[in-house]
Amino acid sequence: MPGGGGRNRRSRPGGATSLPEGLDHYELLRELRPDPDLPTLWHHAVVQDDNYVPRLAVSSPPPFDPIRFEDLFGTPGPIEIEIGCGKGRFLSEYAALHPERPLLGIEWTRPIAWVAAQKLAKRPTLEHAKVLWGDAPYFLRDRMPSRSVAAFHIYFPDPWPKEKAKKRRVLQTSLLEQMRRLAVPGCRFHWGTDYAEYAQYAMELVGATDGFRLLVDKAEPTDGITTSFERKYLLEGRPIYRTVWEVEPLP
Ligand SMILES: C[S@@+](CC[C@H](N)C(=O)[O-])C[C@H]1O[C@@H](n2cnc3c(N)ncnc32)[C@H](O)[C@@H]1O
């Protein structure tokens, strides 16, 4: 997974926490907390010591510590999740259309997450939507309770086109496994990219994964809402590849 504090021991933060015996890699310690200044923003951020050295988790994977949706949304789930929500154009417009659906946008670039959260904060009717600054696969794996998501949205993720970099793509088998764990009956996975090879990769990867059923090939923008990147690409005349899948919950 990207941003995880990988296997390179040279980059291990010296002395922050010793590597537990028997583990060949470590993960960084992440803490979930509300932003002190912006109520629409939550952090699932790497914890640093007083010298700004990232701290290590005590085990890998870290102990599972699921969130309470009541703390974030004031209501129980299920929720919907947008992974890589960028500056939150889709998130805010979709939230405005669906005031009954708790919605979480996850964005790992802090200033961008801040912009998205500001967008929500300006509209008091969007209290059911929040932004999480963090790395989505870790948040899903370590914090999300099973059977709690009604829809996943991933739009125009970074394509990482070079062969060596494809492992950095957000769409990986491990993410699909989490999506199945999290799905409630009827769960949808909305996907879109402008990058033909990524579209093909997604079709093959998702199509070969148990529990995913293609509902719509060549889908339209979800509820007619185009994302920021999509608008740019449409102006450039690029083709757009969107699909909708049904995600079957794990038995
Ligand atoms: C190309 S932008 C697309 C933004 C938006 N979905 C749109 O269509 O306008 C991809 C976004 O995904 C974010 N991102 C990439 N990997 C992520 C991860 N593992 N967790 C959360 N956000 C991620 C990036 O920071 C970036 O803002």
Summary?
The chain has 251 residues and is of the alpha/beta class. Helix content is 25%, strand content 22%. The chain is globular, with a radius of gyration of 18 Å.
Draw up the topology in text.
Elements: E1 30-34, E2 41-46, H1 69-73, E3 79-83, H2 89-97, E4 103-107, H3 110-121, E5 129-133, H4 136-143, E6 149-155, H5 173-182, E7 183-193, H6 196-207, E8 212-216, H7 228-235, E9 241-247
The site of S-adenosylmethionine has 22 residues, from strand 4, helix 4 and helix 7.
Please characterize this protein's 3D structure.
The chain has a single domain, classed as Vaccinia Virus protein VP39 (Rossmann fold, 3-Layer(aba) Sandwich). The chain contains 7 helices and 9 strands. A 9-stranded mixed sheet has the order 1-2-5-4-3-6-7-9-8, with helices on both faces. The N terminus is likely disordered. Helix content is 25%, strand content 22%. It is of the alpha/beta class and 251 residues long. Helix 5 links the parallel strand 6 and strand 7. The relative contact order is 0.14. The longest helix is centred in the middle third of the chain and has 12 residues. S-adenosylmethionine binds next to strand 4, helix 4 and helix 7.
Structure characteristics:
nine-stranded mixed β-sheet, binds S-adenosylmethionine, Rossmann fold, alpha/beta, 251 residues, disordered N terminus, 25% helix
